[in-house]
């Protein structure tokens, strides 16, 4: 790890103005930066994707020709790192990822925040682009209550509100720092929500970007190192409470949840410049609880049908492997 970056981040975090939980956040940051071989351990978990992603797509009877997405990847992963790329197209193309950005927003929050910490929703948070009005100025919610709103409903106001604990600039620095630590070499974040720069009056070139390859690596890390993540993104509906009172039921933006049994979680994203984006987590081999299949699509014109096609092809491939064909 670059010592200058490490010292800079520690200095940044220690100097940030926190209200509650400042000492805990500082301790977590220092422990994170001093953890022996942390980068080595993380890379050991995700490098198998790197090693196998250059292999050619296997021959299959189902057709991928009609998929509209500019880039896609389907990879089988497990904790033993016996990862296998099933299909890919333009896996290294750097493309806008829209609200799939919130996967990294969640990772930073889960690593550096306390779930019980209260966050007051500001007027600025409620004015974020494409807000769904789930949150109102003056609302007070815990971190653990804002996370599902951000991931399930893909709330930009919830994502922005979470950054204000340490300040948006410092939070984005952490997003990019963690991306580098995880080996996401073709990923960069300019905001915590994934909106196009026009929505925030930012320069045109300041748009969050990634690759299907990097998104799969990040998702794998979340599945195996942050168990609460899969529990959250697997929910089709979520009851929204404010100060202990039921307000409404939020609906997942992932329309395949509940419709396709093999899909057990995921995250959507869409903007004018990013097109339709989608990450899903699949269970294709019920006999093997340790295996998951990650599907990622960027810049699609019909992401849900594209993913259904990829799923059908993946099921065929897994079936061949299970029956000893490969």
Number of strands: 11
The CATH H-level superfamily is DD-peptidase/beta-lactamase superfamily
User: Class, according to the CATH hierarchy?
Assistant: Alpha Beta
Write the H/E string, N to C.
HHHEEEHEHEHHHEHHEEEEEH
Please indicate the count of domains.
1
Radius of gyration: 19 Å
Helical fraction: 25-40%
Assign the structural class, choosing from mainly alpha, mainly beta, alpha/beta, alpha+beta, or little secondary structure. Answer: alpha+beta
Strand arrangement, largest sheet? 2-1-11-10-9
Uncertain regions: pLDDT < 50 for 5+ in a row? 1-8, 10-24, 29-48, 51-60
The largest pleated sheet is described as: 5 strands, antiparallel
CATH architecture: 3-Layer(aba) Sandwich
How many helices?
A: 11
User: DSSP strand (E) fraction?
Assistant: 15-25%
Q: Could you report the average pLDDT, rounded to the nearest whole number?
A: 83
* Global shape: globular
Helix/strand layout:
Blueprint: H1 3-15, H2 22-34, H3 38-52, E1 71-77, E2 84-89, E3 95-96, H4 102-112, E4 118-120, H5 123-126, E5 140-142, H6 143-152, H7 156-163, H8 168-181, E6 209-210, H9 212-225, H10 227-233, E7 237-242, E8 245-251, E9 263-271, E10 275-282, E11 292-300, H11 303-322
Antiparallel strand pairs: 1-2, 1-11, 3-6, 4-5, 7-8, 9-10, 10-11
Helix pairs in contact: 1-2, 3-9, 4-6, 4-8, 6-7, 9-10
Write structural notes for this entry.
- This protein is an alpha+beta fold and 326 residues long.
- It has a single domain (37-322), classed as DD-peptidase/beta-lactamase superfamily (Beta-lactamase, 3-Layer(aba) Sandwich), CATH 3.40.710.10.
- The protein is built from 11 helices and 11 strands.
- It has helices spanning 3-15, 22-34, 38-52, 102-112, 123-126, 143-152, 156-163, 168-181, 212-225, 227-233, 303-322, and strands at 71-77, 84-89, 95-96, 118-120, 140-142, 209-210, 237-242, 245-251, 263-271, 275-282, 292-300.
- The strands form 4 sheets. A 5-stranded antiparallel beta sheet has the order 2-1-11-10-9, with helices on both faces. The chain has a two-stranded antiparallel sheet with strand order 3-6.
- Strand 7 and strand 8 form a beta hairpin.
- Helix 1 runs antiparallel to helix 2 (22-34), helix 4 runs antiparallel to helix 6 and helix 4 (102-112) packs across helix 8 (168-181).
- The longest helix has 20 residues, at 303-322.
- The chain is globular, with a radius of gyration of 19 Å.
- It starts with a helix and ends with a helix.
- Residues 1-8, 10-24, 29-48 and 51-60 have low confidence and may be disordered.
């Amino acid at each position: 790890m670059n010592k200058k970056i490490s010292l800079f981040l520690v200095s940044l975090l220690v100097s940030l103005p926190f209200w509650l939980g400042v000492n805990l956040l500082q301790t977590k940051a220092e422990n994170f930066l001093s953890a022996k071989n942390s980068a080595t351990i993380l890379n050991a978990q995700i490098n198998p994707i790197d090693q196998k992603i250059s292999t050619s797509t296997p021959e299959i009877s189902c057709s991928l020709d009609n998929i509209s997405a500019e880039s896609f990847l389907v990879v089988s992963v497990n904790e033993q790192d016996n990862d296998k790329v099933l299909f890919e197209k333009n896996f290294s193309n750097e493309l806008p990822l829209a609200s799939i950005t919130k996967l990294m927003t969640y990772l930073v929050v889960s690593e550096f925040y306390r779930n019980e910490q209260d966050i007051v929703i500001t007027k600025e948070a409620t004015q974020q682009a494409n807000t769904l009005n789930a949150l109102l100025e003056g609302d007070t919610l815990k971190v653990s209550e804002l996370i599902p709103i951000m991931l399930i409903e893909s709330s930009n106001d919830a994502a922005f509100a979470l950054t204000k604990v340490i300040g948006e600039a410092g939070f984005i620095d952490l997003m990019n720092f963690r991306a580098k630590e995880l080996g996401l070499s073709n990923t960069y974040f300019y905001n915590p929500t994934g909106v196009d720069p026009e929505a925030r009056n930012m320069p045109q070139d300041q748009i969050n970007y990634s690759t299907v390859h990097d998104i799969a690596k990040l998702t794998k890390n979340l599945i195996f190192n942050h168990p609460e993540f899969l529990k959250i993104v697997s929910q089709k509906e979520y009851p929204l409470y404010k100060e202990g009172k039921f307000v409404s039921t939020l609906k997942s933006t992932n329309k395949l949840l509940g419709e396709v049994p093999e899909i057990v979680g995921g995250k959507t994203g869409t903007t004018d410049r990013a097109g339709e984006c989608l990450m899903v987590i699949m269970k294709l081999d019920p006999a093997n609880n340790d295996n998951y299949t990650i599907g990622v699509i960027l810049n699609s014109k019909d992401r849900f049908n594209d993913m259904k096609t990829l799923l059908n092809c993946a099921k065929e491939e897994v079936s061949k492997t299970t029956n000893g064909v490969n």
